[in-house]
Design goal:
The complex is a heterodimer of chains A (109) and B (128). Chain A starts with a strand and ends with a strand. In chain A, 36% of the residues are buried. Chain A contains no helices and eleven strands. Chain A has 109 residues and is mainly beta. In chain A, the strands form two sheets. In chain A, strands 2, 4, 5, 6, 9, 10 and 11 form a seven-stranded mixed beta sheet that branches. In chain A, strands 1-3-8-7 form a four-stranded antiparallel beta sheet, with no helix packed on it. In chain A, strand 7 and strand 8 form a beta hairpin. By secondary structure, chain B is mainly β. In chain B, 0% of the residues lie in helices and 56% in strands. In chain B, strands 2, 4, 5, 6, 9, 10 and 11 form a seven-stranded mixed beta sheet that branches. In chain B, strand 7 and strand 8 form a beta hairpin. Chain B is globular. Classes of the chains: A mainly beta (109), B mainly beta (128). The interface between A and B is medium-sized, with 25 and 26 residues.
Chain lengths: 109, 128
């Protein structure tokens, strides 16, 4: 099983500043990685797929980078609505198993 | 606009079978471009992929749950369903249904990609 490790567990950032979230895979997942945002009481929302492609309707301040085992989600200028929990997910096609990271909580500083 | 809606009992007794249905509206479950899946989230914890299905009936399960999980599809009703047997308190969670895009790799063939549409989720509690 591919283990996804996100860091930090909690990130405190002020509105308007940049946030950088990390996700590491225990083995290469190529670019088969997605990022999701989840707010309390809501379902996750797809932000990024293919490691760096924004999903439909996602603002340009969200960007993803990385390949292999190291990935980053960057939010360039935090808005109040961006404070949430963020999950990475690998969907590498072999072995057939899809795993999520444990999440990073982005909170207001 | 595609919508997914989970339905089923919110309370299941230990050792019994959890059964949920996801109804898809605003799109066809028989599209060749997508898989359909179940993901769960225990209270206060992270996300766990349970399994996925293609409209043809091909299924893919989380190895850790495979012995207890059955996912099926009813294209005539535009629905797919989850059955999880022999439940315990550890199966208490919010259960989400979701649509996943279908990818293709020249070496290994088709595979399940990201989940782009999700249902709102339904809390299932396992308790006597």
């Amino acid at each position: 099983e591919i283990v996804m490790t996100q860091s930090p567990a909690t990130l405190s950032v002020s509105p308007g500043e940049r946030a950088t979230l990390s996700c590491r895979a225990s083995q290469s997942v190529s670019s088969n990685l997605a990022w999701y945002q989840q707010k309390p009481g809501q379902a996750p929302r797809l932000l990024i797929y293919g490691a760096s492609t924004r999903a439909t309707g996602i603002p340009a301040r969200f960007s993803g980078s990385g390949s292999g085992t190291e990935f980053t989600l960057t939010i360039s200028s935090l808005q109040s609505e961006d404070f949430a929990v963020y999950y990475c997910q690998q969907y590498n096609n072999w072995p057939l198993m899809y795993t999520f990271g444990q999440g990073t909580k982005l909170e207001i500083k | 606009q595609l919508q997914l809606q989970e339905s089923g009992p919110g309370l299941v007794k230990p050792s019994e079978t959890l059964s949920l249905t996801c109804t898809v509206s605003g799109g066809s479950i028989s599209s060749s471009s997508y898989y359909w899946g179940w993901i769960r989230q225990p209270p206060g914890k992270g996300l766990e992929w349970i399994g996925s299905i293609y409209y043809s009936g091909s299924t893919y399960y989380n190895p850790s749950l495979k012995s207890r999980v059955t996912i099926s599809v009813d294209t005539s009703k535009n629905q797919f369903s989850l059955k999880l047997s022999s439940v315990t308190a550890a199966d208490t969670a919010v259960y989400y249904c979701a649509r996943a895009c279908r990818g293709y790799d020249i070496l290994t063939g088709y595979y399940i990609r990201e989940f782009d549409y999700w249902g709102q989720g339904t809390l299932v509690t396992v308790s006597s």
